[in-house]
Amino acid sequence: MRVRARTAAFMAMLIVAMATFHWSWKAMGRSTKMEGTFPDALPLRGRGRDLLSKDSQQLLEDNFFVFETDMGWCNSNQHTQYGGEDIGTIQDVQDAGVCCKACQESHLDVDQPLSCNAWTWCGDQTSCGSSYLECVLKHVPDMKRPITTASGSGVGWSSGLVNFARGPTSEAESRKQHEDTGRKFHVLLTAAGFGQQWLARIAYYHYLKVKRENPNSDMGGFTRLLHTGEPDVWMDVIPTFVALALPPGVDKGYIVLNRPYGILQWIDQEMHKVPEKYVLISEPDHLYIRPLPNFMVGEKPATYPFWYIRPSENKGLIRSILGPIPDADFEHIHKIGSSPLILAKADLAKIVPTWLNVSVVLKNNPESDKTFGWVQEMYAWSLASFLEGVHDYVLVNNMISHPPFDSKLADVPIIHLTYGMTIAKNGKFVRDEHAPWIFNKRDYGSAPPPRNLTPPPKGTTNKVVVKVIELINEATANIPGWDEYAKNAVDHCCHFDRSRH
Questions:
Q1: Based on C-alpha coordinates, what's the Rg of the chain?
Q2: What is the dihedral angle through the alpha carbons of 377, 378, 382, 387, rounded to the nearest 10 degrees?
Q3: pLDDT at 460
Q4: Helices (H) then strands (E): counts for the chain
Q5: DSSP-based three-state secondary structure for 32
Q6: HSE of 337 in the Cβ direction (CA atoms, 13 Å)?
Q7: Which residues face 346 on adjacent strands?
Q8: For residues 436, 439, 443 and 445, what is the CA-based torsion angle, rounded to 10 degrees?
C-alpha cells in the first residue's frame, strides 16, 4: 500500500533506529531478512508522493543498489558472496549498512596489514543457517574482478566493494576553501572503450584551444572520467580519474550503466577538490567550436532537450517504475539526458545516486529495457532528477548541433558527433549506407582515424559535416605522436563504389 506522508516524529524514530546510515531511498536501508526488505514505500527526501513502486524496489533488492553511510557511498551486489582473504567477522549485524560501514572504518585503518576493500553479509536465515546476520570483512586482490564464491537467487548473502571512505576531516571545510564563487563550470567528460579514447583526445585538444583563445569564458577545469577501471595511453596528457567499473555481470552488457557508477565515485572522492561551483557533464563526441556559456539561470540546471526522449508517451511504463504519479507531474519529467548538462555540484551529488539506482531498475525491468533501449540511462536521469526534486531546467536548443541533420554552424558551441554522415557525389546528404563519402565514428572502434581524413565532396552544402572533418584533421595534425598512435588506421570515408550517386 502506498504511503503518502510520514510524520516528523515517525521519521525521527526511524532515523534513530537506522543511525548507522541515512534512511532515504538512496540509502535503501536493509532489514534483517532478504525477503520483505523494503517497507511498502520509501520516503524520498521527505517528499512522500515521489516513490518507487514496490516492483522497482524488488528489482533493486534482487540485483544491485547503492546507499550511503556517514563515511561515503556503499554498493550492494545482491544474492552474491565474495571470496578473498578474511580480515574479520562480526556477528549479529542487523543490516548491510552496518557491515559496509565496518569495512569503511577498516579501510581507513593504516595500522592493519590488510585493509578491508570488500564485505559480505547474510540477511536470510533460511539459506545462511548459522551464518545468519554474519558480516565478513574481506580483502580482495583485484577489485575489478572480485572473487565470487556463490551467486544466484538462492544465495542469501549481499556483498559490496569499498575503494574509498571519508575520514574524520571536514569535507565541508575543504569545499569552502576551494570553491569558486563565479559562474565557471568544471568539464567532466565520461569515457569507456577504445572508440571513445581517441575521441576524448580530440575533444580535449579543442577544449584547450577554445579555452586558450577565450580566457574569460565560463569554461573551467577538465577531468576525463574513465569508468572502465583501466588506465590508458592518454593518462599523462589528459587530467583523468579512473573509476571502478560495476562488478562483473551487473551491467548485463549495457556498458553505459557504468557511467553513473563512475560519476558517483568521482563525487565521493574528487569533486570537493574542484574549485568551480558548477559541473558540465560531457562526452567524448562533443567537439567544441566556440566557448560554451554557462546557460544556467540562477541555480537552474541547463541542458539540451532531446527529441527522442518522450516521457509523456510512456506514462504507463513510468508509473510502473515510480508509482501512481498524477498526469500533472509529467511536466517535470523532462525530455533530457545527463549530457550535455550544466548544474551545481550540490544538485549533481543529490541526483547521481538515484540516477544509478533508477538505471539498474530500467535495465532489469524487461519492459523498460526493451522500450528505452540504448537511451535508458538518459530516461533514468530524467526520472531521478524528478524524484530528487530538481524540476526546473533551462532547455537550450542551440547548445549542440547534430550533423548531418543540422547543416548550419550558427552560434552553437558544441558539435555532437553521434550520427553517421553520408554524402553523395553532388554534396547532398543522402540516407544510404553505400554513399560514396561516409564518416561514422563507429568505423574507428578498433583503430583511430589517420591524419588527413578525406574531406566531403566539393560542393557539400552541410557546413557542420565539413567542420567535423576540419576539426578532426586539425587535432590529429597537431597532437604529438598521432601517426604512431594511429599506425593501423584506415580512412574509411571512401571505400564504397564511387560510381554510385
A1: 24
A2: 10
A3: 95
A4: 13, 20
A5: coil
A6: 18
A7: none
A8: 170
Long-range contacts of 173-176 (CB under 8 A, 24+ apart): 174/272, 174/273, 175/272
Higher pLDDT pick, 310 / 179: 310
Burial class (CB in 10 A: 0-12, 13-18, 19+), 26: buried
Average pLDDT over residues 395-416: 95
pLDDT digits (tens, 9 = 90+) for 140-180: 999 999 999 999 999 999 999 999 998 876 455 555 556 67
According to the model, what pLDDT value does residue 36 have?
A: 31
d(CA 14, CA 11): 5
Query: 148 forms bridges with which residues in the sheet?
Result: 82
Task: Output the nine-digit C-alpha cell for 462.
Answer: 552541410
Q: At residue 3, does pLDDT exceed 80?
A: no
In terms of pLDDT, which residue wins out, 4 or 68?
Answer: 68
Which positions ≥6 away from 68 have C-beta within 8 Å? 21, 22, 24, 26, 27, 74, 353
CB of 57 within 8 A of CB of 38? yes
Contact 390, 351 (CB under 8 A): yes
Tell me the pTM.
0.88
Dig out the grid coordinates for 44 from the structure.
524520498
Residue 48 has a CB neighbour count (10 Å cut-off) of 15
Residues paired with 240 in a beta bridge: 224
Peptide bond into 340 cis (omega under 30): yes
Distance CA 127, CA 131 (A): 9
Residue 238: count of CB within 10 angstroms of its CB: 21
Residue 31: what pLDDT? Answer: 30
First to last CA, the chain: 63
Which pLDDT band, with edges at 50, 70 and 90, does 491 fall under? confident
Cα atoms in the 13 Å half-sphere on the side-chain side of 55: 14
Closest CA to 285 of 468, 462, 429, 452: 468
Q: What is the mean pLDDT of residues 446-460?
A: 94
Residue 222 has phi, psi (to 5 degrees) of: -140, 135
What torsion do the CA atoms of 78, 192, 337, 172 make, to the nearest 10 degrees?
Answer: 70
